[in-house]
């Protein structure tokens, strides 16, 4: 069984348990249900932002524990003050050590787009995403059929949420793309071997239709890589581990963005 299959099997059981505990009607009574969505698409295109989606990730199947006991309030505010365009919060508990509470805390302290990073297989989780204050959800092409991708993205749209569809190859891209998808994320981490290669992004960039915002995900560790990814057409850059493995992730993010701005200014001066 691959890690992704293992995660999905656990998620299926978890969703059934949560449905029995909190009805959809109850979730819809959350104060966040009335919130206006902050558009991830729009924020990634803002000139005054870095394009970085800074992630809160306590542990992972590939790395184990990264930074378990963190202050979500401090990191999320720090990420945004550093110039990140958006936040990504892992809400999966078993494999990533996250929780819905983490996202609610990030929502409480920040006005910015927040991506609920989880393994979504059921409409219930999309209602839950809205109920905890998320603006966008992740749908993983490798985890869903073409029909499921279309229906879940349409459901997200009906609640006003944006969908980032994650792909690893051309086949998943062709299978998953539909009119309800807002952003396409290319994951540079192979989920069966955990090998990371930015070539996955470089190879798929030109295959993603221009109408979709492009996000490169995973394994990004230097500002110069972002410069190259921008040249390849990417608008968004999802970074977790590189920040989270530092004792002060928000400082690591600020230094990274400062260096990125220096590189951007240098490139602008040359052009
Ligand atoms: O990170 C993992 O080990 C992992 C394993 C299995 C499924 C998903 C996984 N990661 C989720 C992500 O997509 C990343 O957290 C995200 O792209 C940030 O990546 P990184 O900057 O490398 O932490």
UniProtKB/TrEMBL annotation:
Q: Which Gene3D superfamilies match?
A: Aldolase class I (3.20.20.70)
The record's EC number reads 4.1.1.48
- Give the matching CDD domains: IGPS
Q: Which GO terms describe its molecular function?
A: indole-3-glycerol-phosphate synthase activity; phosphoribosylanthranilate isomerase activity
Catalysed reactions listed for this entry? 1-(2-carboxyphenylamino)-1-deoxy-D-ribulose 5-phosphate + H(+) = (1S,2R)-1-C-(indol-3-yl)glycerol 3-phosphate + CO2 + H2O
What is an example of a Pfam family matching this protein? IGPS
Domain (Indole-3-glycerol phosphate synthase): give its ranges. 4-253
List the pathway annotation: Amino-acid biosynthesis; L-tryptophan biosynthesis; L-tryptophan from chorismate: step 4/5
Keyword entries, A-Z? Amino-acid biosynthesis, Aromatic amino acid biosynthesis, Decarboxylase, Lyase, Tryptophan biosynthesis
Per its UniProt entry, which superkingdom is the organism in?
Bacteria
Q: Which GO terms describe its biological process?
A: L-tryptophan biosynthetic process
Q: Which family does it belong to?
A: Belongs to the TrpC family.
PANTHER family annotated for this entry? INDOLE-3-GLYCEROL-PHOSPHATE SYNTHASE (PTHR22854:SF2), TRYPTOPHAN BIOSYNTHESIS PROTEIN (PTHR22854)
- NCBIfam families per UniProt: PRK00278.2-4
Protein name, entry field = Indole-3-glycerol phosphate synthase
According to its UniProt entry, this protein's organism is: Fulvivirga sedimenti
């Amino acid at each position: 069984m691959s890690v992704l299959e293992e995660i999905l099997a656990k998620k299926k059981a978890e969703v059934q348990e949560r449905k029995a505990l909190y009805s959809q009607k109850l979730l819809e009574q959350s104060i966040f249900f009335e919130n206006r969505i902050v558009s991830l698409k729009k924020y990634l295109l803002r000139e005054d932002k870095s394009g970085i989606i800074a992630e809160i990730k306590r542990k992972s199947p590939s790395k184990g524990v990264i930074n378990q006991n963190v202050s979500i309030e401090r990191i999320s505010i720090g990420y945004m003050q550093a110039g990140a365009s958006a936040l990504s919060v892992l809400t999966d508990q078993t494999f990533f050590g996250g929780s819905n509470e983490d996202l609610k805390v990030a929502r409480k302290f920040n006005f910015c787009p927040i991506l609920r990073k989880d393994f979504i297989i059921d409409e219930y989780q999309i209602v839950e995403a809205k109920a905890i204050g998320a603006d966008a959800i992740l749908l993983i092409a490798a985890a869903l059929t073409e029909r499921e991708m279309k229906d879940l993205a349409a459901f997200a749209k009906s609640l006003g949420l944006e969908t980032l569809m994650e792909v690893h190859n051309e086949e998943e891209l062709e299978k998953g793309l539909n009119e309800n998808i807002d952003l396409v994320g290319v994951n540079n981490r192979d989920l069966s071997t955990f090998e990371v290669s930015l070539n996955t992004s470089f190879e798929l960039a030109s295959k993603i239709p221009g109408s979709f915002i492009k996000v490169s995900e995973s394994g990004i560790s230097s500002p110069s890589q972002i410069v190259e990814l921008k040249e390849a057409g990417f608008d968004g850059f999802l970074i977790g581990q590189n920040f989270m493995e530092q004792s002060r992730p928000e400082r690591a993010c600020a230094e990274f963005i400062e260096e990125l701005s220096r590189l951007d200014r240098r490139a602008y001066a040359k052009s």
